[in-house]
Hints:
Layout: E1 6-9, E2 12-15, H1 22-28, E3 52-55, E4 62-63, E5 74-76, H2 80-95, H3 106-113, E6 138-140, H4 150-157, E7 165-167, E8 174-176, H5 193-197, E9 203-205, H6 208-212, E10 220-225, E11 234-240, E12 249-254, H7 269-273, E13 288-290, E14 296-298, H8 301-319, E15 326-328, H9 334-347, E16 353-355
Parallel strand pairs: 1-5, 15-16
Antiparallel strand pairs: 1-2, 3-4, 3-5, 6-9, 7-8, 10-11, 11-12, 13-14
Helix pairs in contact: 2-3
Amino acid sequence: MTVETSIALNDRAVGFTAGETILDVANREGVEIPTLCHDPRLDPVGACRTCLVEVEGERRMLPACMIQARAGMEVRTESPRIERHRRSLLALYLCEHEARAGVGDELLELAARYEAPTDWGSLELYRTGRPDDRNRYVQFDPERCILCACCTRYCDEVEGVNAIALVGRGAETTISTSDGSSLLDTTCELCGGCIDVCPTGAMTEKLPLALEHREVVPLDAVRTTCNYCGVGCQMDLMVDRAANEGRGRVVKVQSPPPGTTTNDGNLCVKGRFAYEFIDHADRLTHPLVRGKDGELHEATWAEALSAAAAGLQGVRARHGSDALGFVSSSRCTMEENYLVQKLARAVFGTNNVHQCAAT
């Protein structure tokens, strides 16, 4: 490795490729540089100033997320100067942040890790929220916001809907919509991506279970595949193992870190918020078959399947095969959908078969 193809990272020569930033190189080499406003899906803006590092020959410290690596560059990510900067910066953030424990609050985690002072007092908050927003899913808490703009950038650069933006000037700058209207009156798709990228919990869920577990409660992440459509997005079910009489309860859904799954950490409104059916009181837990009395009664799967088969055969006998239609679900696997069309064509002799994910 030559000087022309490497940088000195904490006195160690490491290679880089054109276009990589100092932060990219450090992450690949396992060198920790703290960030609050960075997300690999978003264009770097250097807003939070948490990732400042020293570069030989530069008078000021530079944001590692924005500065591209150059041949022969000498970078230091740890020094007394950098340590003072991080502690002071985090302490200032705490002055305008409601410093209560909360799941997913990266600011408090960094403040504790770098031993930032917590006795600098608090500033009067001029940032406003939208407490009357009638949308059911996304809540904005202005007292936790540090204006990193991760949420607005995600809404613009990933979702491409520009439903939220930085509104106001100076100390009154806040996250809002056009004219302060509800998210339901904007182009918002309620994907919840703004919640995932928020480093402080200022953007959070409104659903009751998620709010109940917002404070530090041990939750287990269970990786699974969303079954609402055929895309196959990966997601993490956050489970409170102690709830529901020890059977556990899904209290919210998070997307995996970007770059680790096929959906790159993105989810839609159904994948992120439509999980309450799991423990809903009206959810069917046994097959039901209508009896001669006209009422539905619990049955075994064998009894239910026999009743369904008899019903389909009865329709064919009375009205012919084309009186039947089969609609399969995108929640099924490809193999299961294949079997449905074989059942329609080979068993019942009809081509009236469709799959709801077809375009």
